[in-house]
TrEMBL record:
A Pfam short name: HSP70
PROSITE patterns associated with the record: HSP70_2 (PS00329)
Renumbered residue ranges of the record's region Disordered: 360-463
Organism in which the protein naturally occurs: Phytohabitans maris
Domain of life: Bacteria
Family under the similarity heading: Belongs to the heat shock protein 70 family.
Biased composition (Pro residues): 368-459
Name by which UniProt lists this protein: Hsp70 family protein
Transcription as UniProt keyword: no
Keywords linked to the UniProt accession: ATP-binding, Chaperone, Membrane, Nucleotide-binding, Stress response, Transmembrane, Transmembrane helix
Membrane-spanning intervals of the chain: 473-495
Length: 496
């Protein structure tokens, strides 16, 4: 089946195709996988897209829309003197993808998967579906962008993500930033929390660099600099476009090297920029993204160390400062790629396919089938609990029903206590009301010979005079005998 995956971005659009061989390949536009999402309306009514639109915008900026995705809620877009429906403007970009995909695959696309931000509601998704149909493509299957990124993380990278574990997606593009936490489920992924900064991205970094250059040259060359940043004619607009193109190229170069040069067309000079200077300019913006991601992780009721990782996607996430701040602030080393722009589009191709199939392989959470092995445990406990309960409810019958428990009793202590239980008036009864019961139940039948002979009188139901020390005559007799014995001992000692 010929499948087309589309990541319709704010600044650039990326598309991946998968043919009958199952391999995913990016669509290239002028040798690059990035197609600018820009649209330009020609005077003849034809819509130009991509770099053609950007070049034409130098002649008449009023007919140019650089970021159609940001106009999704507007209903119409004013290009020149015409108002065009938003779905038609977006469809112009998607139509370019459809044409290139059919050429690459050798036939029309049979299935379309389009990604969108997690926070998009039903109305925005409906506009996206209408735009796809207006481009002549089949009704699309919509995929949430962070879910597509998580599918890439597991299916393409082969990273282990057990069921129940969560992954943070740090998506920094050209015009927006999105932070999402997704959790693996037996059937796919679910979004636990999401947040974003709709007005922060690579374009802001470009502008920060332009303003930095202006602070260095605007005072000495004020008029020339103003013609660059605020052009008044087509020639100045072309120079401004060249300036921002060179700034964007320098920004990308600083991700690979420690320095780069920016050519200032009107001033005819080259400004030298180092990575440290650039990092100092964009650091406040980057910290905003890191804090936004930290808040999203907290909203998911997780800590950074609870995650399986932090996955960086989006073209601007390639900037080294992003990974450095995430590692420093959150204590987790993120996963980075050389080409993070294509992650979401390629992940959409694997959504619901290999990613879902890989679930059981990496699953580390007990499934519903796990409880059956634990079932035998409960039956083992009733035999242990039942015997103690029976004697308590029926004290008289306990001695006969439980002879096997005799070995566990304490013979030396048990015999004297049964008489105490039988005589409520005696003092020992209140001191140990419960402990005598177990010995009485187990000892009397099995131990008649060794223990019973010294205590037969105590077991008889006599009311008075059961002990010798309760008879006065016996007490005096024993006392006198003791005194006589002591006297004899003393005399013997003295005689010796």
């Amino acid at each position: 089946m010929r499948v087309l995956g589309i990541d319709f971005g704010t600044s650039n659009t990326v598309a991946m195709v998968r043919g009958a061989d199952g391999r995913a390949r990016p669509l290239l536009f002028d040798g690059s996988p990035l197609l600018p999402s820009a649209v330009y309306l020609n005077p003849d009514g034809k819509l130009l897209v991509g770099r053609d639109a950007e070049r034409s915008a130098r002649l008449d900026p009023a007919r140019f829309e650089p970021n159609p995705k940001r106009r999704v809620d507007d209903g119409v877009v004013l290009l020149g003197e015409q108002e065009l429906p938003v779905p038609r403007v977006i469809a112009a970009v998607l139509g370019r993808l459809a044409t290139e995909a059919a050429r690459h695959l050798g036939g029309p696309v049979e299935e379309v998967r389009v990604t969108h931000p997690a926070r998009w509601g039903e109305r925005r998704r409906a506009v996206l579906v209408e735009s796809v149909r207006a481009a002549g493509l089949p009704t699309p299957r919509l995929v949430v962008e962070p879910v597509a990124a998580a599918s890439y993380y597991t299916a393409v990278l082969g990273s282990a993500m057990p069921v129940g574990r969560a992954l943070a997606i740090y998506d920094l593009g050209g015009g927006t930033f999105d932070a999402t936490v997704v959790r693996r489920t037996p059937t796919g992924f679910e979004v636990l929390a999401e947040a974003g900064l709709s007005d922060l991205g690579g374009l802001d970094f470009d502008q920060a660099l332009v303003e930095h250059l202006g602070r260095g040259y605007s005072e000495t060359r004020t008029m020339l600099w103003n013609s660059l940043v605020a052009p008044a004619d087509p020639g100045q607009r072309r120079q401004r476009a060249l300036l921002y193109d060179d700034v964007r190229g320098a920004k990308e170069m600083l991700s690979r090297t420690t320095s780069a040069d920016v050519h200032l067309p009107a001033l005819d000079i080259s400004a030298h920029i180092t990575r440290d200077e650039f990092d100092g300019l964009i650091r406040p913006y980057m910290l905003q993204t890191v804090h936004c991601l930290a808040q999203t992780i907290t909203a998911a009721r997780l800590a950074p160390l609870d995650l399986v990782g932090i996955f960086l996607v989006g073209g601007s996430s390639r900037i080294p400062l992003a990974a450095h701040l995430l590692h420093t602030e959150l204590g987790v080393a993120p996963t980075t790629l050389e080409q993070p722009e294509t992650v979401v589009a390629e992940g959409a191709l694997f959504f619901g396919g290999p990613a879902a199939a890989a679930g059981p392989v990496h699953s580390g959470v007990p499934r519903p089938v796990a409880p059956p092995p634990r079932a035998p445990a409960p039956p083992a406990r009733p035999p242990v609990m039942a015997p103690p309960m029976a004697p308590v409810g029926r004290p008289p019958a306990a001695p006969v029903s439980r002879p096997p428990m005799a070995p566990a009793a304490r013979p030396p202590v048990a015999p004297p206590r049964p008489p105490v239980i039988a005589r409520p008036p005696a003092p020992p009864v209140s001191a140990t009301p419960v402990s005598p019961r177990p010995p009485q139940q187990h000892v009397q039948p099995p131990r008649p010979a060794p223990v019973a002979p010294p205590r037969p009188p105590a077991m008889a139901p006599r009311s008075r005079g059961r002990a010798w020390y309760e008879e006065p005559a016996l007490v005096w007799t024993v006392a006198l005998g003791a005194m006589v014995l002591i006297a004899v001992v003393v005399l013997i000692v003295l005689a010796s």
